[in-house]
Amino acid sequence: MKAIRRLTVRPVLPDPLRPLSDLARNLRWSWHPETRDLFQSVDPACWASSGRDPVRLLGTVPPARLAELAEDRPFLSRLTAVADDLDHYLTGDRWYQAQSGRLPAAVAYFSPEFGITAALPQYSGGLGILAGDHLKAASDLGVPLVGVGLLYRHGYFRQSLSRDGWQQEHYPVLDPHELPLVLLKETDGTPAHVALALPGGRELRARIWLAQVGRVPLLLLDSDVEENDLGERGVTDRLYGGGSEHRLLQEMLLGIGGVRAVRTYCRLTGHAAPEVFHTNEGHAGFLGLERIAELCDEGLEFGSALEAVRAGTVFTTHTPVPAGIDRFDRELVARHFGPDAELPRIDVERVLRLGMETYPGGEPNLFNMAVMGLRLAQRANGVSLLHGGVSRGMFAGLWPGFDAEEVPITSVTNGVHAPTWVAPEVFRLGARQIGDRRAEDALAVGGSDRWDSVADIPDQDIWELRRTLREQLVEEVRERLRASWRQRGAGTAELGWIDDVLDPDVLTIGFARRVPSYKRLTLMLRDRDRLMDLLLHPERPIQIVVAGKAHPADDGGKRLVQELVRFADDPRVRHRIVFLPDYGMAMAQKLYPGCDIWLNNPLRPLEACGTSGMKAALNGCLNLSVLDGWWDEWFQPDFGWAIPTADGPGTDPDRRDAIEAAALYDLLEQRVTPRFYERAASGLPDRWIEMVRKTLSLLGPKVLAGRMVREYVERLYAPAAEAHRAMDPDSARGLAEWKARVRSAWSGVSVDHVETSTGSALAELGSTLGLRVRVKLGELAPEDVEVQAVSGRVDSEDRITDASKVPLKPVGGPDLEGRWVYEGPLALDRTGPFGYTVRVLPAHRLLASGAEPGLVAVPSDDLAQAAGLLMR
């Protein structure tokens, strides 16, 4: 019989065990081994059956066992020690508190998904895992972050396979009362709510659930409340599900409702109000509109409020392809704003102008969430050095007249939270060298460029560790594969072969990620005979573990999964290659450490960062990857291999795949497998072990989320907080008025004449030329602009590369025609083809960069030809 109603019955813990409840509700347990070990000792069988979830564990432990533990002095001593450790972690000073200068009192971090732990399944892939690692690292560093997201009642889908290998989706219902969450309540005990106005007089209400991620509160908005109609209750049903209006409502709730949730949380708890708002991808971009509306309610007009909001906003883009950005029909967005809907006091046209693609190549009737994110943030970044460059080119249309490298989008390369992803065996090996506390700090806080102590670990210990981790993965794979085949309809009698799947002494390659086409799940199948030869080589075999989910609406991705599964089902190779369904955090934490090689073969440069290889590297797994994302930035032959690419503009996609697949097979046959299997006199693969050692010592410190969050604090959060404080109402009005005045007058700005003066007919390295420029400023004054000389080497088309920029100074006053003369030196500081130009930019003390307004005046073509190049 099916229950007509579901209740959550909470256990009543004996008084001595009450701290267990606090430990279970703080998600620090997900990356703190001592806390997890404590929960496992409560009841090992229940711990395993609960999926290693402390909240579920405490709901299933028999009362008799709890009574027994309440009298168990050794257990109570351990409980006290772990509880005291958590208290010290939550209240003591950490890295952030030791920094000088005025750092932000708080930072609000918005993301559509958060991957904290498998026990809170609110993530689909890399974006969510990155957001979760960001929160954890901020907690370890003491950064006063407040996370904001949505609570999806079905999370992302669970994946299984049909008998013929087709992906099946399942959407289990998540009960918040059974998750590590508490409901945020008003002082009278009623649930705290936020509400959004919808067209037609309707309303979207949401409760606020709180997940405590160490020191960081994570607020999750839930629309499944009785006050909503059925349609509104389903707004937060699934992550990345539904049609355009459904997605728009999710993103309005995340952005607008999220700001209201932060205000409510700060009011109820006394938490410091955020000075900086960080938009993790464009989904949360509407948060800027809500903050503008707040300031308009305080008396600022829209333009001034926009400047004030921009000053304290950071925007991170995660996609290198336009298809990865949410875009909505103009009329759909217009219908949800204005007098009869949300933000009624803001003119709808102003809202639309923030997101419309009003630039060459844009779609004029589409509202682009990333474009809005960039227009509402004074600071923006990509997530690797290469991705920063790709993003500058991708969004260059927003800054016409500027070279792509000057587009104001920087980069902060992603990192991963080592305490979450490093296997306990790897941690123990490091702690044996330097002690537990130093090992914890090295993983969580980082700060050192090298982990030199790895050099002192004996080769034998490293090799034994690698085999232990590989052996654990083999057992995990067999268990998961057996469960998968049962789901596919196989009987026990058919599954005896699984006992021989994988070998703990064979080179093991991992490939696990989402399955969009650009990640090329099936590139390894390009030449199946050659792959089979690698898998079945008599002396140097390989084995491959593959996992990944295709988006439910992506039939092309599902076909790739099916193609891989059918190959892995072949009795000739099924002991050497496996596909594991339902890839998630729990699987990943076993998969990364157990692999010897982490394979990544996307279409370059479409991988923004690709952090899975970082997690593998922290466990001594070597990377074999296309030079894309983070690997393009940090690859060295000392600790991995680069797959050559054929990414020229004229390369046929099919031919490109063939070339790059052949390069992959060549590397495996000629360099990777020989290195793994060759033995020194000691009987150990000493050259392989040295690569593992270099991976840990040189790459390990770079890939840490602690390093990443420190960079965000120093390069983005601190400057944004400073700009926020400087943008008082008068300054905001002044800047808005100045921008309006400059924009209206800019057509009158021009470069009229450029000349150089020199005492020598020869242009030699180290000499200096005098530069004299005459410009028209029209209605503007010299304090409104900066006149620059831009110089550097030139390419065959006379484009300046690696440019140096030097401001020129006005000489005297304007002439009778209102023209100003600027002068300055031009240093010839490099040999070879050299060129220069001049330009005029707006200048104001509150601008983050001269490119920010998107205005520039340069010499006309005729004038440029007359001035010419200095030398060639």
TrEMBL record:
Q: Which domain of life is it from?
A: Bacteria
Alphabetically ordered keywords of this record: Allosteric enzyme, Carbohydrate metabolism, Glycosyltransferase, Pyridoxal phosphate, Transferase
Q: Which Pfam families match?
A: DUF3417 (PF11897), Phosphorylase (PF00343)
Q: Where is the DUF3417 domain?
A: 13-120
Alphabetical list of SUPFAM superfamilies matching this protein: UDP-Glycosyltransferase/glycogen phosphorylase
InterPro entries associated with the record: Agluc_phsphrylas, Glyco_trans_35, Glycogen/Maltodextrin_Phosph, Glycogen_phosphorylase_DUF3417, Pyridoxal_P_attach_site
Identify the cofactor(s): pyridoxal 5'-phosphate
* EC number(s) per entry: 2.4.1.1
Tell me the enzyme class: transferase
Name the chemical reaction catalysed here. [(1->4)-alpha-D-glucosyl](n) + phosphate = [(1->4)-alpha-D-glucosyl](n-1) + alpha-D-glucose 1-phosphate
- Free-text function comment from the UniProt entry: Phosphorylase is an important allosteric enzyme in carbohydrate metabolism. Enzymes from different sources differ in their regulatory mechanisms and in their natural substrates. However, all known phosphorylases share catalytic and structural properties.
Stated family: Belongs to the glycogen phosphorylase family.
By what name is this protein known?
glycogen phosphorylase
